[in-house]
Amino acid sequence: MSLVIDGLSKRFGRIQALDGLSLEIPAGHIFGFLGANGAGKTTTMRIALGVLRADAGTISWGGVDHRRLRRSAWGYLPEARGLYPKMTVLDQLVFF
User: Fold this and answer.
1) For residue 1, what pLDDT is reported?
2) What is the helix, strand, coil percentage profile of the chain, to 5?
3) Of residues 37, 45, 47, the one with CA closest to residue 76
4) Most buried among 3, 23, 89, 93, by the most CB within 10 A?
């Protein structure tokens, strides 16, 4: 299954977070998504996960639009674990 991002753009007010990002990761390859703070990595992943909507462009996995895939078909491992220190483990599992 290949990942294809084509012409992805996202703006937050006056800030252009993504400006026509395009890349393809062939099936069977491992890819590190690295860059400086503010480079658009998190915005790209949030769009791929369906948390944000792109202003323009597409994302597909194996030729299928990312919004049509079952959520259980793929995963995402962020740099930070994103847990809430004041919540119990059970509360966090229910929340996520």
Assistant:
1) 64
2) 25, 30, 45
3) 45
4) 3
Q: Which helix (H) or strand (E) holds 63?
A: none
Tell me what pLDDT residue 81 has. Answer: 64
Distance from the Cα of residue 18 to its chain's centroid: 12
Model confidence pLDDT, tens digit, residues 20-64? 999 999 988 888 888 898 899 989 988 988 889 999 999 998 888
Measured CA to CA, the distance from residue 23 to residue 10 in angstroms comes to 16
d(CA 11, CA 25): 24
Q: How far apart are CA 77 and CA 68, in angstroms?
A: 21
